[in-house]
Amino acid sequence: MAEAMETPGGEAYLAAIAGIVADAEDIGRQIAAGQIAELRMLAAAGQLADQQGARKDANVLLHDMALRSISAEVAGAMRMTDRTVQRRIGEARLTIEGFPAAVAAWEAGRIVQGHVKAIVNAGLTLPGELWAAFEAIAIERCEGDTPNRVRGELEILAHRMHPRSFAERHEEAAAGRCVRLVPGRDGMSDLIATLPTVIVEGIHDRLTQQARAIIDTRDERSADSDVVATDARSTDQVRADVFADLLLAGTPALDDTRDTTAGPLGAIRARVQVLVPAATLTDADDRPCDLAGRSPIDPATARLLAGSTHIWERLFHDPTTGVTISTDSYRVPSGMRRFLQARDQHCRFPGCRVAAIRCEVDHTHDHALGGRTELSNLAHLCQRHHSMKQFTAWRVRQLSGGVLEWTSPLGRTYREDAPTPAVAFTPAATHPGDPAPF
């Protein structure tokens, strides 16, 4: 029995996992019930303060004192500060009263708390009269997917429903860009830059590439250099050090740049992956564009990136003449790789949002076992989930339309639909007597 427990796939091992999963589901239901009950309790506390403030002899001060008093009372029971409880009362009322359908779907087990938070956060960018319509669409989109995966889509949905254009609102928000210094403990501080998302993504990507280059070089030379061998910094630490080097000296300290020519690290440039609807690319509308794995960006920035930098490869897919769909070699041709990046957008393991440009193209049916290099047998997986597919009992098969069906060691299946297409075609409005639009 002990040997079976130690062997992945043994009956005792699988039974133990099944028990843990069943416990996780049961505990999840219990936690959700408690979280919802707490949310309703906090909202009721705020409503009670409103009732006190609605008395004929009440004023703004009386209402505020009533809310403070109730918050302090509840804080004593919850072992929190009264300020924290008062803030949570406001958040609870906003959720319960502003997005009741999302709370009901959470209570019914259709979605989880993370979905509710994502719906509320995205919905708050809309005028209140649009919340119900947004909520109905958002709940349907959340079912069957993780909060992390749908968060960006919900933000774009809210932007598209907003009566003011995203470009106009982004221009106003960009006026508030700034850099802030927040003192910390033990001689450390946080330097916080509020910048357009695509700029921040590019900065982080370049720092990550440079940090990886330093670590790879360190690992290769550690046996030949005592100095390199003592460098045990993590990726986060190297990234922070390179960030400081670039700002203070203009070049990474470990770069071997001797003159105006960029060295290995200096030559690294940022990469970002943006999905641009065709109508937005051609300036036919001002809808927000999706920065894969992050959040929406303004259309003007997306057009600038698509049209004026050599790093971008513009992708135009002609279903009649265009994309390479199969090859006899193991290597994926660049045209096919670009098409897969546009199709997959991110890692195709359920819930993962690592952008496709940071993933590996995996043969769903292994090439060594006869799998072909064709679109219907290829999908992007991040290094973590690519390794899990190779070295654990998780299995995947690709259905039509790029849909992946994952099967866990317990036999539970998880369907990973292809992401929402970056381009969609809708028929133009016609009037009686108009010629057919084709």
UniProtKB/TrEMBL annotation:
<keyword id="KW-0255">Endonuclease</keyword>
<dbReference type="GO" id="GO:0004519">
    <property type="term" value="F:endonuclease activity"/>
</dbReference>
<keyword id="KW-0540">Nuclease</keyword>
<keyword id="KW-0378">Hydrolase</keyword>
<dbReference type="InterPro" id="IPR003870">
    <property type="entry name" value="DUF222"/>
</dbReference>
<dbReference type="Pfam" id="PF02720">
    <property type="entry name" value="DUF222"/>
</dbReference>
<feature type="domain" description="HNH nuclease">
    <location>
        <begin position="335"/>
        <end position="387"/>
    </location>
</feature>
<dbReference type="InterPro" id="IPR003615">
    <property type="entry name" value="HNH_nuc"/>
</dbReference>
<protein>
    <submittedName>
        <fullName>HNH endonuclease</fullName>
    </submittedName>
</protein>
